[in-house]
Specification:
Rossmann fold, seven-stranded mixed β-sheet, 6 helices, about 30% strand, transferase, SAM-dependent_MTases_sf
Length: about 180
């Protein structure tokens, strides 16, 4: 399967940052049109991506974009919210989201779902690219506060010069 060409910088950077191993099980929250899932799936060999999105329209678009990966069993999508999904415990090595506001608003229930779904030592990547870079510090501060308040440790905060504005990423691990 060929690597897609029509991929924004922020998604290429995100996949580089996550360093997903070929056999990792990856959960994407807010998968949208499946752009990031396609990039992750390109590097898998035995691993799997599950994308969640609340919009049936986005899920349909993601399935269309990832037809070959879905047919190969490397990718699946569900129309559901993170709060409502039933995921088996310790079923993912990596979870990530890009521009999903629940991570800096009030995600107590969602963070509990993620903590249960990730393997011990599993990593959460919260990515954000705002319309203007001035919003990033407030998002980083709010997300850090919410994550740490829910028992997560923010391991690092990364910034990238992505087009059209910079992107940030909080890397976190749940500490029971």
């Amino acid at each position: 399967m060929t690597m897609p060409d029509d991929v924004p910088d922020r998604f290429r950077w995100a996949v580089d940052v996550m360093q997903v191993r070929p056999t990792d099980r990856v959960l994407e929250v807010g998968s949208g049109r499946g752009v990031a899932a396609a990039l992750v799936a390109h590097g898998l060999d035995g691993g799997h991506v599950l994308g969640l999105d609340r919009s049936a329209t986005m899920t349909t678009a993601a399935l269309r974009r990832n037809q070959a990966h879905v047919a190969a069993g490397a990718v699946a999508f569900r129309t559901t919210s993170l709060a409502d999904v039933d995921l088996p415990p310790a079923s993912f090595d990596v979870a990530f989201a890009f521009n999903v506001s629940l991570f800096w608003t009030s995600p107590a229930r969602e963070l509990a779902v993620l903590a249960r779904a990730l393997v011990p030592g599993g990593r959460l990547f919260v990515f954000h690219q705002p319309p203007s870079p001035e919003k990033n510090p407030a998002v980083v501060e709010a997300a850090t506060r919410l994550l740490t308040g829910a028992g997560w440790t923010v391991l690092e905060t990364l910034v990238a010069d992505t087009s059209p504005v910079e992107s940030v990423c909080l890397v976190a691990r749940h500490e029971p």
